[in-house]
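Supplementary Note 2. Why include the ligand at all?

Several targets in our set were suspected to adopt different conformations when bound, so apo predictions alone were not considered sufficient. For every target with a known small-molecule partner we therefore ran a joint prediction. The input for MF3 is given below.
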Amino acid sequence: MRVSGAIVAQVLDLIGSEIRAGMTTLELDEMAEAYIRDQGAVPSFLNYAPKGDPDVTPYPATLCVSINEEVVHGVPSEKKIIREGDIVSVDCGAYKGGYHGDAARTYSIGEVKPEVKKLVEVTKECLERGIAHAVAGNRLHDISSAVEEHARSFGFSVIQNMVGHGIGSELHEEPPVPNYGRKNTGVKLREGMALAIEPMIAMGRSRNAISKNGAWVAVTEDGKPSAHFEHTIIVRKDRAEIMTLS
Ligand code: MF3
Ligand code: CO
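The joint prediction is reproduced in token form.
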């Protein structure tokens, strides 16, 4: 998991140094896929099919690139052009040696409105606070409530119908990791558990990310911007070990 996690982090570093206004989201995707394959790894999301939902087509790309009101699962396209003032959430997964790594970052393109910049900063802090609670002996929703409290203290809303997850030999494993919940509830965290913690935080009042007629992309209910950060971590005794650190 350290190996696959490092590859994911390197992809997100690469995207961070290359992303700029005028690029298409497909260009980012091609860059990411080439890098992952060069490392002898396989993109985790490409051809991913959620179990038990025959209506959804397998995911067609390496990255999810979600712009502004798009919360997650934006499908890269040559028609999607990144513009000055956008916030762009890039989610990446890589599989190598039998294990997955999964992480996301939201990039600001040029001059972004101050309140949107704040949203991005706070979402990153939500992830850090969540991770700080991912230690052996705590309970799962200690992570969730730390994320929720921080987001709400700035008046932002937590997307509730999309969650983090256990991760390992499968991209999505038990348990679901919500970004809201009550302290001191949920399963006991034990050393060695691997989790993908991924706050999705929105500026408006949106509680859900909605997708229309079979499309992958999920947007806020009110069209307000949303940010997303994710790390794959391992629960340890004193402090979680982050697999996808830059
Ligand atoms: N990080 C996201 C997740 O854990 C990305 C999944 S994209 C998918 O759900 F295509 F694989 F679904
Ligand atoms: Co994930």
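The chain has a mean pLDDT of 97. The chain is about 25% helix and 25% strand. Comparable summaries for the other entries are listed in the accompanying table.
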